[in-house]
Amino acid sequence: DAGVTQSPTHLIKTRGQQVTLRCSPKSGHDTVSWYQQALGQGPQFIFQYYEEEERQRGNFPDRFSGHQFPNYSSELNVNALLLGDSALYLCASSPPSGTQETQYFGPGTRLLVL
Amino acid sequence: TQLLEQSPQFLSIQEGENLTVYCNSSSVFSSLQWYRQEPGEGPVLLVTVVTGGEVKKLKRLTFQFGDARKDSSLHITAAQPGDTGLYLCAGLRVDSNYQLIWGAGTKLIIKP
């Protein structure tokens, strides 16, 4: 049983570009949350998707958007990249009716913006 | 501003020593979790505490939730090099079911 998978593992972009990160949840999970973790910091909640809709959003600008597909996989899109967007982007999935207490994390995508 | 303050930020000790790391807030949490994160990996859940005053043990690790559910501690007895990692606390505030609030973490190094 595969856990949460994310792709790509690493990515280098330049300022102003756009990026799409992908996440496949753990089998049986229907909720996906995205986090940004800057170096030396704890994760910061970006948003959560459930039933293909954004259920809750953290304090991130509209440049950050997402999508959830019928198979529960998810994408995180970031437009107009800034240097400060360089971070580890984590995806976490939760089972049906689970809260963020019962989430499992993927290994993350490390994004470097030059 | 971190809603959950972790201390110390960094700790380097010798194998066999004991240590305690803290997670403090002025907010009340319905539950609080501790994670360990290793380089290049996502956080892995160690424990969830939900009741004020609750104590949970995981081998040499002891977790406590404060009586007022505003703080928590992690105590490691006889630390081993395998305990090295970033320890993160995260809590669900009583006014939210969906959004975990995270501390900045304690980076722990256990020297052989």
Please render the helix and strand layout as text.
The complex is a heterodimer of chains A (114) and B (112).
Chain A: E1 5-7, E2 10-13, E3 19-24, E4 31-37, E5 44-50, E6 53-57, E7 64-68, E8 74-78, E9 87-94, E10 104-105, E11 109-113
Parallel strand pairs in A: 2-11
Antiparallel strand pairs in A: 1-3, 3-8, 4-5, 4-9, 5-6, 7-8, 9-10, 9-11
Chain B: E1 5-7, E2 10-14, E3 19-24, E4 29-37, E5 44-49, E6 55-58, E7 61-65, E8 71-76, E9 85-93, E10 100-102, E11 106-111
Parallel strand pairs in B: 2-11
Antiparallel strand pairs in B: 1-3, 3-8, 4-5, 4-9, 6-7, 7-8, 9-10, 9-11
Mind telling me the C-alpha Rg of chain B? 13 Å
- Low-pLDDT stretches of chain A: none
Q: So what's the oligomer here?
A: heterodimer
| Tertiary shape of chain A | globular
The number of helices of chain B is 0
Helix percentage range of chain A: under 10%
Taking pLDDT < 50 over at least 5 consecutive residues as the criterion, the unreliable ranges of chain B are none
Beta-strand residue fraction of chain A: over 45%
Got a strand count of chain A? 11
Average predicted local confidence, pLDDT of chain B: 92
The DSSP helix count of chain A reads 0
Please estimate the helix content of chain B: under 10%
Which structural class do the helices and strands of chain B define? mainly beta
Structure description:
The complex is a heterodimer of chains A (114) and B (112). Chain A is globular, with a radius of gyration of 13 Å. In chain A, the strands form 2 sheets. In chain A, strands 2, 4, 5, 6, 9, 10 and 11 form a 7-stranded mixed β-sheet that branches. In chain A, strands 1-3-8-7 form a 4-stranded antiparallel β-sheet, with no helix packed on it. In chain A, 38% of the residues are buried. Chain A has strands at residues 5-7, 10-13, 19-24, 31-37, 44-50, 53-57, 64-68, 74-78, 87-94, 104-105, 109-113. With 114 residues, chain A is mostly beta strands. With 112 residues, chain B is mainly beta. Helix content of chain B is 0%, strand content 55%. In chain B, a hairpin with a 2-residue loop joins strand 6 and strand 7. Classes of the chains: A mainly beta (114), B mainly beta (112). The A-B interface holds A 4, 40-45, 48, 55-56, 58, 90, 92, 99-101, 103-108 and B 2, 4, 6, 31, 33, 40-45, 48, 88, 90, 92, 96-100, 102-105.
